[in-house]
Amino acid sequence: NTMRDFLRDLPKCEHHLHLEGTLEPDLLYPLAQRNNIELPEQFPKTVKELEDRYKQFKDLQDFLDFYYIGCEVLLKQEDFFDLAWAYFKRSHSQGLKHAEVFFDPQSHTSRGIAIETVVSGFQKACVKAQQELHISSKLIMCLLRHLPVEDCKATLESSRVLFETQQLHGLGLDSAEKPFPPELFAECYETARTFHPDIQLTAHAGEEGDASYVSNALDLLKASRIDHGVRSTEDPELMARLARDKVMCTVCPLSSVKLQVFQDVRELPLTEFLNAGIPFSLNSDDPAYFGGYILDNYVAVQTRFDWDLATWEKVVRQSIEGSWCDDKRKNELQ
Ligand code: ES4
Ligand code: ZN
């Protein structure tokens, strides 16, 4: 298949990937067994039943209900390592070169797991991915916006040293977007900016929430990147701002269809972003839940948009340019 081969060979960067969202059903059950975790009564009993349930989600919350149950099978440093290593191996076969990946410490610390256990497991996988697969990576800690802000502040304090020592590079904001707007987390982001001069800030906005969520993430959180951002098209002034300030939107094609933000990949505002000069990248979000890793997302886009070589070169160049790695690494990626 020449289209898939062409897209596989592009040097791909991923900027919107939840490590907990890479938990495949065929790893979920063995981990539950290995850790003696009892899944809820109504939870599907087999890999096949679970895969069937993942074929469609009603909305973001319907997906999140499964995602947080999945998190419960992760306990030990090795579990976090195994999860991330499986992601890197699989994505390497799809042409991934650089990954900036999210994780949700509160999904684990709420169960009595130390944040250091989570981070050290993920970190080991990142080191191995660099050494054996030549994939560079950065860890982005996300705050869960549906939890009390006080809980988020405590999590932030517990992560201070991890940012100071640059084991963590970025802060993000995820989980149910509505009714938890960016303004609730302005103080958290302000605190995070004191952790390290090079800390990078992003936030999920404009997926469920309207364009004002995107504007407020820029104004009040001082985010330099927006995760999803697809509803920015509703506000022409915001579109002009995203282009002028080169704010990258991390678009997730298969995710947005699975969560019924759009009925088809064709409806994603990629042509609008290209015409407006807004940089974006294409990402897999939660590949174990949404039916595809990074290359599958590239293929889904090409099947609908039929871009020419020059457009793909531009999209690839912008995803490298918008990455949070140094210029030396960006040059290697070209
Ligand atoms: C997520 Cl798709 C999405 N949106 C918001 N929060 C999330 N956490 C994991 N996947
Ligand atoms: Zn996401």
TrEMBL record:
Location(s) in or outside the cell: Cytoplasm; Nucleus
* GO molecular-function term, one example from the UniProt record: zinc ion binding
Give the catalysed reaction(s), semicolon-separated.
Answer: adenine + H2O + H(+) = hypoxanthine + NH4(+)
| Catalytic residues, chain numbering | E207 (proton donor)
Q: What InterPro entries does this protein's entry cite?
A: A/AMP_deam_AS (IPR006650), A_deaminase_dom (IPR001365), ADE (IPR028892), Ado/ade_deaminase (IPR006330), Metal_Hydrolase (IPR032466)
Identify the keywords attached in UniProt to this record, alphabetized: Cytoplasm, Hydrolase, Metal-binding, Nucleotide metabolism, Nucleus, Zinc
Q: Name one cellular component (GO) term.
A: cytosol
**EC number of this enzyme:** 3.5.4.2
Query: Which family, according to UniProt?
Result: Belongs to the metallo-dependent hydrolases superfamily. Adenosine and AMP deaminases family. Adenine deaminase type 2 subfamily.
PANTHER family annotated for this entry? Answer: ADENINE DEAMINASE (PTHR43114)
Q: What is this protein called?
A: Adenine deaminase
Lineage runs:
Eukaryota, Fungi, Dikarya, Ascomycota, Saccharomycotina
As recorded in Swiss-Prot or TrEMBL, the protein's gene is named AAH1
